[in-house]
Amino acid sequence: MTILVTGGAGFIGANFIRYWLDAHPLDRVVCLDKLTYAGNLSTLRPLLGRENFRFVRGDICDRDAVDALFEEERPGVVVNFAAESHVDRSIEDPGVFLRTNVLGAGVLMDACRKFGARRFHQVSTDEVYGDLPLDRPDLLFSETTPIHASSPYSASKASADLLALAYFRTYGLPVTISRCSNNYGPYQFPEKLIPLMIANALADRELPVYGTGENVRDWLYVEDHCRAIDAILSGGRPGEIFNVGGHNEMRNIDIVRLILRRLGKPESLIRFVADRKGHDLRYAIDPAKIHAELGWLPETRFEDGIARTVDWYLENRGWWEEIVSGEYRNYYERMYGGR
Ligand code: NAD
Ligand code: TDX
User: Fold this and answer.
1) 152 lies in a domain?
2) Is 79 helix (H, G, I), strand (E, B) or coil?
3) Is residue 177 in some structural domain?
4) Does residue 327 sit within a domain?
């Protein structure tokens, strides 16, 4: 079986490709990735020589290139990770989010129809549900919670979900959708909370915490997300949405303190900065459906996952130091300078 993984040079996509090749060594994996600022071919370099792996640089919005790749490879399954994924960047410049996250998903689904893929899986996010209040721990997002996106990023992801469901209903395209909570683990681009705080703490730079630091996210180790997608591909019914989460809600400030403690750095490095516009207060996923229907449960406890993640960033400085020394510097100045 050939599986096409789009956005596979990014954080979750690369972890998924590694996971898939281990779990399904007889499959062929083709990765299509544009290598935007967030894509990093060095993550996939150890796989490049493998017979059952192919990397293709290309844009999911480029219909001719996508069709040509489908014609050549005839993928049975397509998993779409390709996206602009950073909320702060979507607030700065929403246009590219609409293009890649909505139109790109549409181009891929058209190719799936044209060339007869038996599954299109859209990797979505819990952010499509908007946020929950901090003082109602009893409330969780279920698959029937109405869509209520807050940022241009989440609105674009919600749009792609609607398009996928419409392709299922109108054309009978066998789509599935996973809506996952915040992932953490190796190979995450250092603009996101956990790797940013690790990188700054190691350089004795300030740790910029938005607002009061009381916003809550539900953190899941990336490998658990990969296993969830695998379970959905093998047992999830087309047309269905599955929430994926770790029952692991944490306040941002507590994560930041934990990272500082693990690195033996002082809390005086923390700096409270201006809040994110439209900042979602709390995300919390109810993963009851994927557990009941597909038997999936998270396996990595947060204490273990965060320890592994901090160690990984300590042991793989070359991977992220290259990133933080390049174009990322200009981004960092724009986003945090004078904030
Ligand atoms: P990422 O930003 O690390 O990686 C995105 C990848 O997509 C990059 O390799 C980039 O080069 C590629 N890409 C971007 N535009 C492209 C285009 N037009 N054509 C082809 N490739 C393109 O993102 P991530 O954190 O790995 O997230 C992957 C997916 O999972 C996204 O769809 C995101 O919405 C979703 N998601 C992420 C999280 C999280 O916590 N990171 C949680 C839930 C869902
Ligand atoms: O410097 C920072 N300071 C800070 O306080 C950054 C980068 C973030 N934060 C806060 C904002 C959020 O409350 O930390 C929290 C996590 O921020 P991000 O890492 O940017 O993630 P989030 O906005 O929650 O979105 C992530 O999870 C859902 C991914 O980036 C999305 O792709 C995914 O869909």
Assistant:
1) yes
2) strand
3) yes
4) no
Q: What's residue 246's pLDDT?
A: 82
Q: How far is the CA of 87 from the centre of ligand 2 (A)?
A: 7
Flag whether pLDDT at 20 surpasses 90. Answer: yes
Pocket test for ligand 1, best of 6, 11, 163 (most atoms within 8 A of CB): 11
Q: What is the pLDDT of residue 315?
A: 98
| Ligand having the closest approach to the CA of 91 | 2
* Residue 156: CATH number of its domain: 3.40.50.720
Report the pocket of ligand 2 as residue ranges, CB < 6 Å: 85-87, 125, 127, 182, 192-193, 196, 208-210, 215, 217, 252, 276
pLDDT for position 327: 86
- Structural domain for 225, as ranges: 2-185+220-248+282-299
Sign (positive or negative) of CA dihedral 133, 136, 137, 142:
negative
Q: Return the residue matching tokens 């990322």.
A: 328
pLDDT tens readout for residues 304-336 = 999 999 999 999 999 999 898 888 889 999 999
Q: Say what the pLDDT of residue 1 is.
A: 97
- Distance separating alpha carbons of residues 84 and 256, to the nearest angstrom: 25
Residue length of the chain? 339
Number of domains in the chain: 1
Separation of alpha carbons 176 and 288, rounded Å? 17
Q: Does 335 map to a domain?
A: no
What does the pLDDT average to over 135-139?
Answer: 96
